[in-house]
Fold each of these.
Amino acid sequence: MFNKRSFLAIVVSIIIVFTTTFGVLMYLDRRDYRIFLGNQYQKDLYEIVSNVESLQASLSKVPVTMSEKQAIIIFSEIWRQAGAAQDRLNSLPISHEALSQTTKFLAQVGDFSYTLLKRSGSGQGLNETELKTLEKLNDYAGYLNVKLHELQQEVSEGKLDWTEIKLKGKVLFSQKLQNPVDVKFENISKELQQYPTLIYDGPFSENVLNIKPKVLQESKISIEEAKRVVKDILGNDKVQSIDTYSNKTGGKIPVYPFKVTMKGNKDATVDVDISQNGGKIVYLLDTREVKGSKLNMKQAIEKGMKYLEKIGYRDMIPTYTLKYDNVALINYAYVQDKVVVYPDQIKLKIALDNGDIIGIEAQHYLVAHTERKIPNARITPQEAKIMLVKI
């Protein structure tokens, strides 16, 4: 009897020690993840502020730019900084509904500058209307800069905690409360809605963005069908749960917005928006940590093209690449009859540790994509090369 009691006591003690140790290890692991997550978001915000500061500084230089060479350098810098700010902004734990106007502003400033960059390269100067537009954009960039500094200050003073915002997102939604940073960006959006209408030769031009989305011509699907699409995309065996994360259904393209918890990591979630018409991916963001870089850009581009084919986006080629923080950011555009159709654009973020697709933006493609009647070329490839040499 004594031996039996001693044995049971030892077993119970081992179980208690094991569960306590396991609990402590889980707590430490969760704490380390929260610290990493907070530091990563803080780093992203710091870089966004730096990008917008540089963008504003470059915009302010445009009116006093005298030479073609200076103009090319300045417009290149504006384009680069706007793109970097837009991408990093989308990595923060803020709903993309709240960010939509801010990211649209950055996309249009960058795209407009790229259009002016190409014109400067061909020896064309700016007209008075374009100069006034750039001055207005500089004013709004200054406003965005001030608001981002205020947000950075609040985070530094401990008034806002990125990890709380990220990890309590579903709780806030269930209680019909808004993420405090969402509120700030919605207020920023109201101000940015007043910047000048930009109509120019580019995929983010207002005359392109204001067309009725082509995807709306497709049949409407149910929310359960949309959930099945999510499982097909992410892997049915990898998905733990799918929850609705917002009561908003999207802007130009009505969507079903989901927050997906993956098996094996309850803290890292994937936000996915599926179009109510056609069941297409409009937006995806995976928050998992990318710890290293094993793939080069060529390998990432190939993985991205195979992925796009797998989910139904065919005949796409890469048009722009950027590498940062072990992630490849790649823009793909549709090709029809050997002609690149730039409005039909999809942006992918690819993790360079294993090639996972951790970000998708397909709204521009879904708005613009249709089969077009491509006119015959007016110049030959050889003539185009000669023109480039002259530039």
Amino acid sequence: MESNKCFFAVDLGATSGRTIVGTLAEGKVNLEELTRFDNNLIETGGHFYWDIYALYNEIIKGLKLVAQRNIPIASIGIDTWGVDFVCIGDDGAILRNPLAYRDPHTFGKMEEFFGNEVSKEEVYRITGIQFMNFNSLFQLYAMKRDGNSAFKNAEKILFMPDALGWMLTGNAVCEYTIASTSQMLDPRTKQLDEKLLASVGLTRDKFGTMVNPGHCIGTLTEEVQKMTGLGAIPVIAVAGHDTGSAVAAVPAKDENFAYLSSGTWSLMGIETKNAIINDVSYERNFTNEGGIEGTTRFLKNICGMWLYERCRKEWTDAPKSHTELIAEAMKQPAFQSIINPDDSMFANPSSMVDAIRQYCRETGQHVPEGYAEISRCIFESLALRYRQVFGYLKEMSSFPIYVLHIIGGGSLNDYLNQFTSNSTGVEVLAGPQEGTALGNIMIQAKTAGDVKDIWDMRRIIANSLSLKHFVPQDKELWEKAYGRYLTVIDKKGAC
């Protein structure tokens, strides 16, 4: 492995983004965050949009900093959240900022699609993707039904990381892992399905060429080179879906692990060689998303720190410090209030605090008062939901699961990590925090020939950090709480 090789990662989440430089040297990888910025939803005209130009501008700012500091980056990689996309006109211009997955225009459209176009069972049989009203398939259907002008005039439709890669290079691709989130891709053929595309009035040529992680999209355009002061740096299609990059960075020793990518969303799953598409996975709404080196990420989305993040924005009396706020939460009595984090009432309420209190009221529980009780409710409920999904994974996995790796920002929450170990009954290893950026960088390193394969990547990452270790405690207490959790969600009619 070449010494001091540098790679530039753009990691965009649903609430914030960052640019990071990763340096490989002496069998380890080191990260340096260059910039961090908010990723804000724009609400206007009754819709929620992402500001694609602001995100592009933040990438340019990061690249300018690279040039100013003379950091010798070998390549650039971009990962983002899934499902959202940008419409491009026949003149090469972006047709309006892209709609955000939390926009209400898809409400009711999923059920309408099944009634009018393709049955729910057939959609799952083709794609193996869990049903969420904001999946790309239903967004496109809603845009078609609503007569959306950007949709009607789109020459190309590019998923978010592909759109930003196109803005940097001028080349349009359709990266496999991000395309797999759309509910339009068949994991067997590894191509977008013609029948599902036709169901929303589209053909395959509306999307870029399908490429796998590690493909070189192109080099920075002369325009971008001039703006940034850099040369013709290659832009690599990494695992464009942030969870795909994050799972590539799980520092596992062998295949007998489950992962929990913990951030705004929590994604819990296993890594398999082939998609798992059957009646049980359909009933439990599990998803099969593309991974690197031909793997499948068999997982389920869980509404993660979104609940906590939204509540923090509402609280005016809570400590600004996460550490202080969580410490106050841990002083509250255990299991006073339990919620199902994935109940539809928590999708995007005007007040998350009111939604949590209403849920508890409707299920005949203690209604939490103040930031400390609500925080405790959120963390305990997340751990119990993790237990439920982990149990499903153990049933459907073809191999035993001995450890749960927690990666992402949520891996820093020691209390939630301990709760998760208590609830699931398995060893938890927490870290790395910047799993997504690490995976992004290591895929670039593999493309450059500095890393052999996914296990080499994981070995280097494991050598580069110290993992926090949690073992199960208070088994009887958590077993009793899980029984209460199942009773509560049964009352609400959700699973």
Amino acid sequence: MTSAMRGTQLARLLGQWHALPGRRRSPDYAALAGAVRGLLSDGRLALGVRLPAERELAESLAVSRTTVSAAYRRLRDSGHLTSRRGAGSWTTLPAGHRVASSGLWTPADDLNLIDLGCAALAAPPQLPDVVRAAADDLPRYLGGAGYHPVGIGELREAVAAGYDARGLPTHPDQIMITNGTQHALDLVLRLLVPAGAGVLVESPTYPNALAALAARRARIATHGVDAGGWDDELLLGSLRQGRPSLAYVIPEFQNPTGQLMSADLRERLVVAAQAVGTDLVVDESFADLALDGGPMPPPVAVFDRRSRVVSIGGMSKPYWGGLRIGWVRASAPLVQRLAALRVGVDMASPVLEQLVAVRLLAQADVIVGARRRELTARRDALAAALRQCLPEWSFAMPAGGVTLWAELDGPISSALARAAERLGVRLAPGPRFGLDGTLERFLRLPFTLAPAELEEAVRRIAAARYDLDYVTEPRWATPQVIA
């Protein structure tokens, strides 16, 4: 079924669509069409969505209907909109494009593209040997049906041992294996968030978490995370006043800001959440990726006394995204409730992949240690390139994780992403990490590529930024990333 978007909804997503920098601004209709293409390219506007009628959108944007008509005509000409008399206009895909692994639509021949939209590393060199060794472990499972809704015992034991090593005593019965961290989050939300319930999240935050919450029809409230980290009183005050059903946080090298939550705030957060009956979902995707060698705060669940903290994590960031293994750490009764729910979704995780995960975790010191050294060099290369090529931008150097959150010299994130696409760089603009078109002054830059690629990407981004100010003629070419 085709979904429909109201004029006020699209207006919120568009944000400052007509306020692009430059000595010679594009006509409003061209800027509007380009802004809609930008929403499609960064995934905030899906395919097959019926856009508002011209008159409705014109009223919502406070522009003339002629402007909207011309913008829709330009989108139809570029293949991003299909219209039929009496049925409306809906978003479509230009010919010759496909969906990329990031979920975005991209040309099939994007050979020179530097992808900074995906914050993930390539596989470690040990993986092929580990997979072959794991295949030798498989025969002992072949006599059974192969369904393990909470995961195979040896992997649950390995994950529990990892929590023990971090100072959080954990029994294997408190672990459930999932198909990645996103799957873990989805299952937890299915169980703990009724439709329409209030949920508190950080701003900015992980876009796919927002998508999962939207699928639950949650009422989302936000609290800010900036270059100084969390505002303690704002976060705790939001909990006490809003009394949400659930709060989702990323305390270890927060995605996208890279901030690390202090031990003191972790304890106060748990106390405040429990006082108002809020469940805490703690995303620990980056907990293994400390880069500066300092002591790590204890896991948030250390402070839990009422079994209201649910921790989720996985193999994607420290190991490889193609290995779809994640987990939930919670009370044993909650794990059993999740398993009962899961049977109606996907039954269980693949046994072979779980055996691969067991062997990777056994080599964690070697593999993750090498990842940290690799990421440290790449982070430093990215930071040096930004300081050289874009000195007017500011950022806090992350002490871990895989992303750097840059504050730009103006509210130009989406416009810059569109311009950079023409120069062969895919970016995830700031609004993708928030609600309703905010965060236009920010840009997430992962440092998961090789230093030479990162340096070239920054040079291209700097050129795109220059073009925004000094291009003499409007250029609204079809972008390389299209949705």
